[in-house]
From TrEMBL:
This is DNA polymerase IV. The active site is at residue 108. Mg(2+) binds at residues 12, 107. The keyword Cytoplasm applies. GO terms for cellular component: cytosol. One of its GO terms (biological process) is DNA-templated DNA replication. Residues 8-189 form the UmuC domain. Signal peptide: none annotated. Its main location: cytoplasm.
Length: 362
């Protein structure tokens, strides 16, 4: 790999909950095992063993359907406290290699090992060592994908499951992505997949034949992202620790205020400070909150959910201005504050579109 490229590893445990159960219960080993739901309930499959997958059973499938597909499958209740403990062990193994560990769920994480803690240079060897350590500590297998960005590392980790290790170098990346079914790209969920499939687009190479203009026409801003993804372009950083959930700023006035224009110009100043902090952390927000404390110390907050993720002072200001307009102010104001909540990574439009798509699905 070129030295200026990042080294990203995606670690993903194999059939995590089911593997923990098979580890802890000899009698489940080698059997179709389903964690979550029960044969005649309305619940869904959380995870199932590889033996169960051979019957076509998969996560999120209704338990009753899983039971029809494989009547002798064993159903067990999830033991979340056990999975959480195992997850802590896995994450601490990862963190021994780099500070840049971004957990995606209990059994999945991105690592940026460009600057490895012990100076190991090969992403492949680092991934192999992590897999080995996970096995020694937990008795469970993980699959790993190694590449120069999150997108490719994640698709790669899924390529040779279970117990896989897939390395995609920049030279191999385009051919690899060309062969990937589009549903495996971040941000392409069921709805988008169907829409594209009607256009004869099934794989990365099909998708790459669409021009940027066509993609934007079909999917607006998401089209832009698809255009990059299918070419292996994904600058999203690995973000360690979940980001702080809100950013806020407030001002108490020397002299209580009763002029709306004065309040608005104070709010613009606050919005500018918040924009700076959002930018510094590369995040956007989904909820804007206005706080008003009156001269009599009575305090109110008003909040709004934004249509699009906000970061700019102007956008934040527009929202708080309309919130302020809805407040009946009959006494002087001593404090104004703005908080932006529901933060998400600004470089991660994919996460946003995944969420958006799920909302339309349900
Ligand atoms: Mg997994």
């Amino acid at each position: 790999m070129e030295s200026n490229l990042r080294k990203i590893i995606h670690i993903d445990m194999d059939a995590f909950y089911a593997s923990v159960e098979q580890r802890d219960h000899v009698e489940y080993r080698g059997k179709p095992l389903i964690v979550g739901g029960s044969p005649h309930s309305r619940g869904v499959v959380a995870t199932c063993s590889y033996e169960a997958r051979r019957y076509g059973i998969h996560s999120a499938m209704p338990a009753s359907m899983a039971h029809r597909l494989c009547p002798h499958a064993i159903f067990v209740k999830p033991r979340m406290d056990v999975y959480r403990q195992v997850s802590r062990d896995i994450m601490s193994i990862c963190k021994a290699h780099t500070d840049l560990v971004e957990p995606l769920s209990l059994d999945e994480a991105f690592l940026d090992v460009t600057h490895h803690r012990r100076g190991m240079a090969s992403g492949t060897l680092i991934a192999r060592e992590i897999k080995q350590q996970i096995y020694e500590v937990t008795g469970l297998t993980a699959s790993a994908g190694v590449s120069y960005n999150k997108l490719i590392a994640k698709i790669a980790s899924d390529d040779h499951k279970p117990n896989g290790l897939t390395v995609i170098t920049p030279e191999k990346a385009q051919a690899f992505l060309d062969a990937v079914p589009i549903g495996r790209f971040f941000g392409i969920g069921k709805v988008t997949e169907q829409k594209l499939s009607l256009l004869g687009v099934h794989t990365g190479s099909d998708l790459r034949r669409l021009s940027r203009e066509q993609l934007i026409q079909l999917f607006s801003d998401r089209g832009r992202v698809f255009y990059d993804l299918v070419r292996g372009i994904d600058p999203r950083p690995v973000l360690p620790n979940r980001i702080r959930q809100s950013i806020g700023k407030e001002t108490t006035f020397q002299v209580d205020m009763d002029d709306i224009d004065d309040m608005l110009s104070q709010l613009m100043l606050l919005a500018q400070t918040i924009e700076q902090q959002l930018r510094n952390r590369s995040v956007t927000g989904r909820v804007v909150v206005l706080k008003i404390k009156f001269a009599n110390f009575q305090q109110i907050t008003r909040r709004t959910t934004t249509h699009i993720p906000v970061q700019s002072a102007q956008d934040i200001y527009d929202y708080v201005q309309s919130l302020l307009n809805q407040v009946y102010i009959d006494t002087k104001v001593r404090l104004l504050g703005i908080t932006v909540q529901k933060l998400e990574s600004a470089q991660d439009p994919l996460v946003q579109m995944e969420t958006g798509e799920q909302l339309t699905l349900f």
